[in-house]
Amino acid sequence: MADYLVIVESPAKAKTIERYLGKKYKVKASMGHVRDLPKSQMGVDEKNEFSPKYITIRGKGPVLKELKSAAKKVKKVYLAADPDREGEAIAWHLAHSLNIDQNSNCRVVFNEITKDAIKESFKHPRKINMDLVDAQQARRILDRLVGYNISPLLWKKVKKGLSAGRVQSVAVKMIIDREREIKDFKPEEYWSIDGMFIKESSSFEGIFYGVDGKKTKLPNKEAVEKIQAKLTSDQYKVDKVQKKERKRNPSAPFTTSSLQQEAARKLNFRAKKTMMVAQQLYEGIDLGKKDGGITGLITYMRTDSTRLSDTAKQEGKSYISEKYGDNYIGVIKQKKNAEGAQDAHEAIRPTAAFRDPSSLKSVLSRDQYRLYKLIWDRFIASLMAPAIMDTMTVHLGQNGVTFRANGSKIKFKGFMKVYIEGRDDNKTEEDRLLPELEEGMFVKAKDIKPNQHFTQPPPRYTEARLVKTMEEQGIGRPSTYAPTLDTIQRRGYVSLDNKRFVPTELGEIVIDLIREFFPEIIDVDFTVKMEDDLDAVEDGKTNWVEIIDQFYQGFEKRLEIAEEEMEKVEIRDEPAGIDCEKCGHEMVYKMGRYGKFLACSNFPDCRNTKPILKEVGVNCPKCKTGNIVERKSKKRRTFYGCDNYPDCDFLSWDKPISRPCPKCQSLLVEKKSKKGVQIQCTACDYKEEPQK
């Protein structure tokens, strides 16, 4: 019989840890929280220092009963929930439910699930940290006071089922503000002049720079024509050649935020999926008996720190030396964490540098492998030498008009041999070679072409960009990003269009009401200050009750005003102009989780619904009678099919275009790549040059 009981959060983690600890330890899982505030009521006594009322979560009775039974049979119980505020609170609730003295050394924490880390952590058990617990309680109670007071008001004044949360409301406001910025944007005209130049058999691009050595803007066609009038020959003199060596340093290892951003760019993962797969890698994967059985492959994935342990650095450097040579090892400098970072844990990294992704491909799922490879590559690259680039800038002149050409060549790959950070604009680091040019020589212009442009509005937020902006502004913490993005979509406040957030009419109505009656809830500065206050509670510098009380005094008064003055908002369904084919009543536009859809106005007697189909102006190449429409898959990925479905099953992931292939008259489609949009035939080898 075991002498000690260890309680963790998940069964997968329990199996791994039990194998490391041996026969004297029995490891069981609590399956997350066992106690929480009740769902059916506020559960917070505002008149008694905001005292919370905790109850056993529905369905957790059998789990608690099993844990209590197991606890009676052992000498000591260790609480080993995750090493963060939430984990500390879970440990505290378990201690209360199992009658464990919270001041005893019952709490064990570890940043990685490896044999050495687990055994070392059990040598240093500690008391439950009530400052961490209070910080979690304060957040939970604050969010409950906001949500359970404003939400019923929204049900009464707008629509049932709505909710308002602190962080989620700020996120929706950011998306709405960006959308309004886009609508109010007034484009401004500007021009460029692009040249293609030839030196012997080599051609290269140059862009108009300026006149008489000064950078010059081209606001309109008249300005362009003045420049063109000066260009009387196809001969251009090389006025200046600058050659430099440039270093490019590697990115720091991942934090929660940067992992979510990079997984979105490179793997097309949503934030929720990234965290789910990372949790699996952290808790352990069965590598087989020969390689150690169930093993945690990465360190804890909720962190805002880029710090690495000395052991991790040394192991990584050893791998780099063995695989690439000592000249690829970088001079490791601790990069400064983002302002406000708690630095409670290391960066996200592999638990063993020598466990490279290729060796694990057979035991990992596709998603697990891709995310592990991303984490492993970034960690190894962060310890490698900078890349060295040879750059060349050339000024070409004629009659005082200057064109500039830039070229670069990778001289030493350094960290780029392993990993290059993704970019939101899809630009890649690659060789752009210029021919050998010297000052005083002449080159020939093959083509000089003016182009009209208009300034573009700021882009809508992608998940990655929204997470980055929230982190930069101090809104939320690593554990809140993924659930926040999930919540605002489930509530129907925003939808995703081409992987970018678009606010819904419902979202705008709710945020405008909150903006009017509860402005502090969506005020970025207020939200950031609240996060700082919660950090102060965690550090033991502030009492959590005082923070809640300061907020609630003003909030309570605003609630009274809103109850009296907030007018009822009627959201009328917009007629669609067509009748229901099932009952003959008018169809209307409804707003759902994924945006607008068509529904019968005779609901609930008739429950007919249909997606809103967007035609692309192409006849179906398969049945010849239908039209191609844009559709969404279950995972919200856009595809194109025939509107005669299910009678016609034509499907294309690439957008068809109206003109036929000039070579074989078959269907042409748009293929998206990093180089731009390329039009190609679905039946033959016809392709057109990619268009940016």
The order of strands across the largest sheet is 8-9-15-14-11-16
Alpha carbon gap, first and last residue: 68 Å
Query: Which segments are poorly predicted (pLDDT under 50) over 5 or more consecutive residues?
Result: 339-343
- State the helical fraction: 25-40%
Number of helices: 16
- Indicate the overall shape: globular
Radius of gyration: 30 Å
| Major beta sheet summary | 6 strands, antiparallel, barrel
Structural class: alpha+beta
What is the mean predicted local confidence, pLDDT?
A: 89
Q: How many β-strand stretches?
A: 29
The portion of residues forming beta strands comes to 15-25%
Description:
The structure is a single chain. The chain has about 700 residues and is an alpha+beta fold. It contains 16 helices and 29 strands. It has a six-stranded antiparallel β-barrel. A hairpin with a 7-residue loop joins β12 and β13. α8 crosses α11 and α9 crosses α11. The longest helix has 28 residues. The chain is globular. It starts with a strand and ends in an 11-residue tail after the last strand. About 0% of the residues have low confidence.
